[in-house]
Design brief:
Layout lengths: L4 H6 L5 E3 L8 H9 L4 E4 L5 H14 L4 E6 L5 H11 L3 E5 L4 H9 L3 E6 L2 H9 L5 E4 L5 E2 L5 H11 L4 E4 L5 H9 L4 E4 L13 H9 L5 E4 L7 E4 L2 H10 L5 H7 L3 H8 L3
Parallel strand pairs: 1-9, 2-3, 3-4, 4-5, 5-6, 6-8, 8-9
Antiparallel strand pairs: 7-11, 10-11
Length: 271
């Protein structure tokens, strides 16, 4: 594996981030990835500040290597989780689904490296001005919340727009994808789905089996109506949500339609 400037910046052996997947990337998984030489990342998602603190301390008990915390900024608990990150002084904070500008000074004062996920050149330039340590350029091939541009299109444009180290994300699952990312100008990669079937990952065995059996046509994107597109497996629930999205129900009803569904899939394998 190539070493890059990212390794020296963060104190990791390999320029590989494990994505901060909500309800999946807990302290145990993050510690395992960090112990393996990458950067493990706890995914706070919609979880409470107490859960985030518990997982940070779990990771600390299992590794002496750097690890990160991903904060989904559209979470109702984002403000409290942001405070926990500063109090616990995690090595790295990555952010998604929003603009982290209001929190960045607090994190930087705590000695935290702030590495936002960006889906556009404009956002990359803004985060560069705000003092980010690096950027994760994530294309629409990724799982979870996605943007409009593909990884192949987005990564080189972000690399041209900033002098910061760029981590490529979206559709990368092996050495071939990592090599392609480096050729596009990135100095590291972030992978999420690739870690789902690790023995240290706590998702339900049925979920893992669906991942292993998935083919090229087994994902779909929903949520565009509400402005927060999400890529997921093409499950019965995802199909029913897609139908609801184009029905006559209100936006409020649509928000409620999916409440708790992902956590149920992770913990009980119910898709």
């Amino acid at each position: 594996m190539i070493r890059s400037e990212l390794c020296g910046l963060l104190g990791i052996r390999y320029p590989v981030f494990q994505g901060g997947m909500a309800w999946i990337a807990d302290g145990r998984l993050a510690a395992a990835v960090s112990n393996g030489g990458g950067l493990g990342i706890i995914g706070a998602g919609n979880a409470s500040a107490a859960w985030a603190r518990e997982q940070i301390r779990t990771a600390r008990a299992l590794t002496d290597r750097p690890f990160g915390l991903n904060i989904m900024l559209m979470s109702p608990h984002a403000e409290q989780v942001a405070a926990v990150a500063a109090e616990e002084r995690v090595s790295v904070v990555t952010t998604g689904a929003g603009d982290p500008a209001r929190y960045m000074e607090r994190w930087q004062e705590a000695g935290i490296r702030v590495i936002p996920v960006v889906a556009s050149v404009a956002m990359a330039k803004q985060m560069t001005r705000m003092g980010a340590s690096a950027l994760i350029a994530e294309g629409g091939e990724s799982g979870g919340h996605v943007g409009e541009l593909t990884t192949m299109v987005l990564v080189p444009q972000v690399c041209d727009a900033t002098a910061l180290p760029v981590i490529a994300a979206g559709g990368i699952a092996d050495g071939r994808g990592a090599a392609a990312a480096f050729m596009l100008g990135a100095c590291g990669v972030q992978m999420g789905t690739r870690f789902l079937c690790a023995c240290e990952c706590s998702v339900h065995p049925v979920y893992k089996e669906k991942i292993l059996k998935a083919t090229d046509l087994c994902t779909m994107v929903t949520g565009k109506r509400l402005g927060h597109p999400v890529r997921s497996l093409r499950t019965p629930f995802a199909r029913s949500y897609a139908r609801a999205e184009f029905s006559g129900i209100t936006d409020e009803e649509l928000h409620g339609y999916s409440a708790g569904a992902f956590r149920l899939a992770v913990e009980e394998g119910d898709g």
